[in-house]
Structures are given as C-alpha cells and as structure tokens.
C-alpha cells in the first residue's frame, strides 16, 4: 500500500508539472470555478434573504450543507479527476495505454490530468468558516463540531468517489455513461446541496438508499447542526461511504476483467 501511495504521489507530481506548462489556463480555470460556485451559492442566498429560511433551515445551516458537499466534491475531483471521465478512455481507446503501466490501472487513471480544485476548496472553506462561526457564536453548535465536520467532509469525499467510480464502471458494459453520470453524480449532488426536507418522500429515500448522497452532508448535519439525531449517524455515514467504496472496487475489478481493448 505504501509503495502504491508513493507511486501515486510521483504520478501526481508529474501531472502537476505538465499542467503548469500552461499557467494561464490553470489560473483562468481556477478563477472561473470560483465565479461559477459563488454565483450558484448567491442564488441560494438570495432566496434565503427573501424568505428567511427553507423549511426551517436558516442561511447558515444551508450554507453548511452547501460548503461541506462542495469541499467533499473538490477533494474527490482533485484526487481522482479522470474517474469521472472514464468514458473518453473507453471510447477513444486511451485505457489501453494505462494497461501497459506496471501499476494498478485505477491508480494510473486517478493520477491522470491532475486538477487542484483550488476555487472550490477556497470557496467551500470560506463559506463553512463563516457559517460555523455564526452558529458557534449563537450557541447552536460547540467547538466539537469542527473535528466532526472534518470527518464528515473526508467521509463525503470517499462516498462521492465511490459513487463516481461505481457509475464509471458501468461503462465497461454500456460504454456511454454520460447520461447516467448526470443522474448519479451531478443531479444527486445538486439535490444534496439543499435541505432534503424540501423534497417529496420518494426522492428523500432515493437520496438515502438508492444514491446515498444524503450521508455526505444532510444526515450528519442533523446531528452536528440541529441535534435532531444521535452521535451514531457520524460513524454510520463513514460506514456507508466505505461500503459503497467496497462495492465500487469489486465492480471495477469485474469490469476490468471483461474489458477488451481497441486492438483486440
């Protein structure tokens, strides 16, 4: 394991050096990511300023949900960006080149086209700091919420990666997975940015049991922010993340075993 982590670090360093050959593109894409995320959150803030709350959730509480999910997504997309783009490797035959490397193919894929999601990390950290600061001063949460939130963010990153990998692995069977990713990754994650109490029951259960993004931020926040659940929801969220990860890795191994390269 240590050997593969060292190899991953070396591959990431090489990817960073290649990307920094085009510094303007790097900083411009970072700036655009910040602007897009700021506009997205401002739309939510405008609604909250107009009506005061969403189903009893204040601006600070909604900001907490948004920031936690943003940071989890940023960590996932930073550590394993091209897992989300497996389709192009399958369609274009680029996966064949990765098969030739003397390292696990998933590790090679994760290290491709490394992108530090600086914009999302900065914005998510800023929103989370402000919202938690307000709620701590108001006595809504204590300082113990900080380490718990860090655990939730990392657990959420594992969960989002697992969902992304599981979706990407479907490409070994159906090849074109963009529409599926729109549902399992993009649409589900967007829905989880808001309090799930605003959704009908069937959609809430889908986001808890079907595509379990609720465990990335909403369910843990019911304990950390609102004290509406017991402490066990935190370890349960971590357990769900690693269970989905285990299922995704198992599916990946099966998919790789049946993969036929473009030259076969």
UniProtKB/TrEMBL annotation:
Keywords: Membrane, Transmembrane, Transmembrane helix. Pfam families: ABC2_membrane_6. PANTHER family: INTEGRAL MEMBRANE TRANSPORT PROTEIN, SLR0610 PROTEIN-RELATED. The chain crosses the membrane at residues 26-49, 118-136, 148-175, 202-219, 231-252. This is ABC transporter permease. InterPro entries: ABC-2_transporter-like. It comes from Paenibacillus abyssi. Signal peptide: none annotated. It comes from the Bacteria.
């Amino acid at each position: 394991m240590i050997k593969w982590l060292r190899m991953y670090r070396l591959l990431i360093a090489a990817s960073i050096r290649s990307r920094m050959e085009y510094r303007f593109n790097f900083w411009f894409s970072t700036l655009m990511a910040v602007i897009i995320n700021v506009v997205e959150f401002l739309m939510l803030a405008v609604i909250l300023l107009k009506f005061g709350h969403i189903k009893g959730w204040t601006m600070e509480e909604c900001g907490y949900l948004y920031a936690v999910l943003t940071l989890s997504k940023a960590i996932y997309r930073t550590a394993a960006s091209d897992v989300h783009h497996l389709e192009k490797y399958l369609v274009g035959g680029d996966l064949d080149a990765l098969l030739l490397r003397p390292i696990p193919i998933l590790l090679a894929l994760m290290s491709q086209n490394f992108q530090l999601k600086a914009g999302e990390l900065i914005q998510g950290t800023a929103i989370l700091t402000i919202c938690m600061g307000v709620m701590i001063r108001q006595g809504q949460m204590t300082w113990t919420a900080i380490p718990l939130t860090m655990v939730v963010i990392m657990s959420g990153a594992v969960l989002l990666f697992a969902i992304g990998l599981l979706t990407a692995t479907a490409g070994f069977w159906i090849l074109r997975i963009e529409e599926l990713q729109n549902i399992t990754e993009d649409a589900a994650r967007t829905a989880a940015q808001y309090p799930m109490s605003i959704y009908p029951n069937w959609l809430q259960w889908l986001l808890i049991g079907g595509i379990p993004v609720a465990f990335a931020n909403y369910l843990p926040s019911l304990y950390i922010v609102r004290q509406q659940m017991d402490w066990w929801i935190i370890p349960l969220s971590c357990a769900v993340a690693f269970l989905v990860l285990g299922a995704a890795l198992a599916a990946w191994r099966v998919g790789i075993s049946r993969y036929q390269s473009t030259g076969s």
